[in-house]
Amino acid sequence: QVQLVESGGGLVQAGGSLRLSCVASGSFFSINVMGWYRQSPGKQRDLVARVTSGGSTNYADSVQGRFTISRDNAKNTVYLQMNSLKPEDTAVYYCNADGVRTIYTGPSGPYWGQGTQVTVSS
């Protein structure tokens, strides 16, 4: 099992920056993919960015060039640096982990954090 705890959300003005963090804990020895998704009221949850254990990354077109995802495998932590924030980035941001392995089981997931609110004012 994996527990994901996000932090770093908040209120920021348009053009500002925030850094989200997500720490994974539990009885596992590896996580293949960690990422961030976001969901606004009335909308589906969409991928923002993800990173593999080997460092390969994917970004949504809407955040390419403004957001940077990174990962510290030793700390089981994934970060999302968000720059040049826009009001349309306002959403609840959820941490995600997939391809989780334990000594007894093959890859499992996805697992989700509880979410952290990001609000960008115009």
Give a brief description.
The protein has strands at 2-7, 10-13, 18-26, 30-39, 46-52, 57-59, 67-72, 77-82, 91-101, 111-112, 116-121. The chain has 122 residues and is mainly β.
Characterize the main sheet: 7 strands, mixed
Note poorly predicted spans.
Answer: none
How far from one another are the termini? Answer: 40 Å
**Rg value:** 14 Å
Provide the β-strand percentage band. over 45%
- Order of helix and strand elements from N to C terminus: EEEEEEEEEEE
| Overall shape | elongated
Secondary structure: helix percent: under 10%
Count of beta strands: 11
SS-derived structural category: mainly beta
Our count of helices gives: 0
Q: What number is the mean pLDDT? A: 96
Describe the fold and architecture.
The protein is built from no helices and eleven strands. It is mostly beta strands. It starts with a strand and ends with a strand.
Which helices and strands occur, and which strands form pairs?
Elements: E1 2-7, E2 10-13, E3 18-26, E4 30-39, E5 46-52, E6 57-59, E7 67-72, E8 77-82, E9 91-101, E10 111-112, E11 116-121
Parallel strand pairs: 2-11
Antiparallel strand pairs: 1-3, 3-8, 4-5, 4-9, 5-6, 7-8, 9-10, 9-11
Q: What are the defining features of this structure?
A:
4-stranded antiparallel sheet, elongated
